[in-house]
Design a protein that fits this description.
8-stranded mixed β-sheet; 4-stranded antiparallel β-sheet; single chain; alpha+beta
Length: 294
């Protein structure tokens, strides 16, 4: 029988050794220990609210760290506390049920999403836990040693809190598809409260007073990532994406950022072509796992 125990502050020290091996199971796991120790009290409470120690008959076997939000919940790290040989003999199909039951009851969770480097161990354990492989992602990187060559100047506007509803509406237009849960104001407010958020690098693309694109650069560990980048459907196909991308990268270079990463769906050929032709290079392929709430 599995049960999920809330993470206490003293557990961070007790499991410090295991938590600092966060990349052994999945190279894309985030560093919970380091992030927690450097965070404000508010963010520490948030991190603990989405983290559980999973025990099997009182024996700790996994630490799961997730975002606490509605609908689609991102798993930020899964850290085994047992060897692979020990874990694969256990009934892991019950793990996520115990985890879900332990989360705040007000959350309306439809699925959990977890991104990994695909290897035999995490493939076996995630399948046993009930996750489903959905799609591949390609990680790309661009050095900012040379400034991007802008073909034409574009107007960009830094995102401000009073623009939150406009951002939600625009991103839901840009990324609309039947598999995506719409973004909410609460989601944005939660995001901008985190240390990963960089206010100086979050921008709208503006044309004739209208917001037609959005993109930002976030900090993850010691790297910088382009995220939420896109143009509204009615304004695509006229070179705006490249000009907007270059404008954001130029602002990053002004802040002395040396290189930018991004993740793009393997089958998004149009976006891949844009990034490759804009100086990004392929780094490695990753995959996304989904756990659907029954």
């Amino acid at each position: 029988m599995y049960k999920a125990l809330p993470l206490r502050a003293k557990d961070l020290q007790y499991y410090k050794k295991e938590l600092l091996k966060y990349r052994e199971f999945n190279d894309l796991n985030e560093n919970l220990y380091d992030r927690y120790m450097k965070s404000s009290l508010f963010n520490k409470i948030q991190y603990r609210s989405g983290t559980r120690i999973i025990c099997y008959h009182e024996d700790p076997v996994l630490i799961l760290w997730s975002e606490t939000r509605n609908y689609n919940v991102k798993m930020r790290s899964i850290v085994p506390l047992k060897s692979f040989a020990e874990l694969k003999t256990q009934p892991l199909a019950q793990v996520m049920d115990a985890f879900l039951e332990s989360l705040p009851i007000h959350l309306d969770i439809h699925q959990f999403e977890y991104t990994t480097i695909d290897n035999e161990e995490n493939h076996i354990l995630l399948t046993e836990m009930g996750f489903t492989y959905r799609k591949g992602l390609l990680r790309m990187k661009r050095k900012l040693d040379l400034p991007p060559k802008v073909s034409r100047e574009v107007e960009i506007k830094r995102f401000q809190i009073e623009d939150v509803k406009a951002r939600v509406e625009l991103q839901n237009q840009i990324f609309d598809n039947k598999y995506r849960v719409p973004l909410s104001v609460t989601d944005v407010l939660l995001e901008i409260s985190k240390r990963t958020y960089i206010p100086e690098l979050s921008f709208f693309l503006v044309e004739e007073g209208q917001y037609v694109g959005y993109g930002q650069i976030n900090r993850q560990e010691d790297c910088y990532f382009l995220v939420n980048f896109g143009i509204a459907p009615d304004f695509r196909g006229k070179g705006r994406s490249r000009d907007f991308l270059y404008a954001i990268l130029s602002r990053a270079k002004e802040l002395d950022i040396q290189e930018i990463y991004l993740d793009v769906n393997e089958d998004n050929f149009r976006a891949k072509e844009l990034y490759l032709s804009s100086g990004f290079q392929e780094e490695k392929s990753t995959c996304t796992w989904l756990y659907y709430i029954k």
